[in-house]
Amino acid sequence: MRTSTLRRRSIRVGLVAAAAGTILTVAGCSSDDSAPKVAGDEGAGRAEPQDDNAVRKAWVDCMHKQGQAGVTQDKDGNIAFPAAKTDTGLEPGFETATKLCDEKVPGIKQAKQADNSKFVEMSRKWVECARKNGYTDMPDPDPKTAIVTVPRAVFDPTKWDAASRACDARFPMAGYSIGE
């Protein structure tokens, strides 16, 4: 009996000592200890917020290097893409260049996400304007991409031109496509 009581005590003492060692180890860290360096923190121990405009400019520059000169950036930092043609679609190599530049320019995904709600609102205003200017069956923009997809069955070039003349300057649209 005595042997088992001694074993239990020594196990308890060992557990208490192990727990105390863990507490001492955790308590041994202080705010003066230097944290490991991570990419992008410039040695400050914290990351700086990204400059979305600089990220967009780098992405547009990358697209130009890939032969996509139709991609531009306006004075407010907004990126404009060439419209897809109804007969041939996007510019040759556009999708490949987009994928490459998305990979080469860190932060473009976050910059695009930050811009999305602004673009959805701009497209909604354009659609509202188009409806007031005779294109009554103009569909709403996609709430995720801000793209207005006009079904081919309701696409009317005359109405489109009238809506564009009335609305483009006041309400820039994020993008559109003529769909099925």
Question: What are the salient characteristics of this protein?
Answer:
180 residues; mainly alpha; two-stranded antiparallel sheet; two-stranded parallel ribbon; 5 helices; 4 strands
Strand fraction equals: 5-15%
* Helix content percent band: 40-55%
| Radius of gyration over all CA atoms, rounded | 29 Å
Structural class call reads mainly alpha
Mind summarizing the main beta sheet?
2 strands, antiparallel
Shape: globular
Overall pLDDT confidence: 73
**Count of helical regions:** 5
- Give the strand order of the largest sheet, numbering strands 1, 2, ... along the chain: 1-2
Give the N-terminus to C-terminus distance in angstroms.
Answer: 86 Å
Tell me the total number of β-strands. 4
- Low-pLDDT segments: 1-41
In N-to-C order, the SSE pattern is HHEEHHEHE
